[in-house]
Every structure is written in structure tokens, then in C-alpha cells.
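From the pipeline queue, job 12 of 40. The input is one protein chain; the requested action is below.

Action: predict structure.
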Amino acid sequence: ASNYPGTTVGYTQGFMKLGEERAEVIDVPGTYTLEPTTEAEEVASRMLDTGDMVINVVDATNLERNLYLTLR
């Protein structure tokens, strides 16, 4: 395991209170596309297909690359 971009393949999940509801939160590996080419992107793509909501966190120093996925 390492803490470098592009090295996380699994996902992390937890729960939080959202109003009166208990919400599941899943952190998936970073991806820039909906067409996976790596194992990590495949994990992220599968999770995106099953979620009710997506929170897309992007790096503002490279908006052109990062907003591609946001706009899909």
C-alpha cells in the first residue's frame, strides 16, 4: 500500500449522518474517464454505476483534465 496518486486499487467505505438519515460514503480510486483502462478505474466505474449521488473532487490546478469527468 502507498499514498501516491494512481496507486490505490480498492475502495474505502464508511457511514455518516445526513439529517436524520444514515448515509453510506464510499471513497473510490481516482479516475479521469468513464471508460476504464486500469483495475483502479474499473473499481471506480463500478461504484459510480451503483451510487445514488456522486461527489467529484477535482484538482483546481488542472481543470481541463479534471473537469472532463465532471461534465460526463
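Job complete. The two ends are 30 Å apart (CA to CA).
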